[in-house]
Amino acid sequence: MAVTVQTVISQSLAGIFAASGAAVFPAVGDVRISVEYGPTGADYTGTYQLTAVAVDIGNVPEIEEAIYRLLTIDATTGVLAGTRIYPLRAPQENSDGTPIDLPYITFQRISADHEHHMDSASGLVVTRLQIDGYAGSYTMARALSHAIREALDGYRGSVTVEDGAVTIKMMHLENDLDGIDESTGEDLGSYRITQDYRIGTAESVPTF
Asked: How far from chain centre, in Å, is Cα 111?
């Protein structure tokens, strides 16, 4: 049978969505693939129906999980923010429709540099992580920022998370700055202090 771009795409999709793990994705409808190939730029467009498929997503412990863990178990940040620690941004309101409680913390990965030797990965990834502390007053925002720094800056060790452990080899606070979150409305008085961390963690080394 002649190997065509359609065959390659079909086989690739079959491999990607093969049943190889316990994480089940719901039916997501049609996935449409368009590819240009060949010297004349001819193209092929195909539609593939994805139903409920099982995909192994790896269950890899992430640095974000470790940060959440460290902040929730810390005596001071645990009291100030509790479990109000959110990836990327906080919800606009609580489940009962009231404004989101203050103070709270958000975090987001800005970049991740995967270190390499000449011929292979080194097993070290250096992540730049931004952590924002929000509070109803500047004084409380400063207190929350200080607590976050005390919990994280200079930390080294293994942090147990749901899918295993994250080995933190270094964690340094690079800089911080003040701000006001105007999107939440003046009535909330949401003061923000942003901290940028540089975090080195161990990662698996691909084998070929």
From this structure: 10
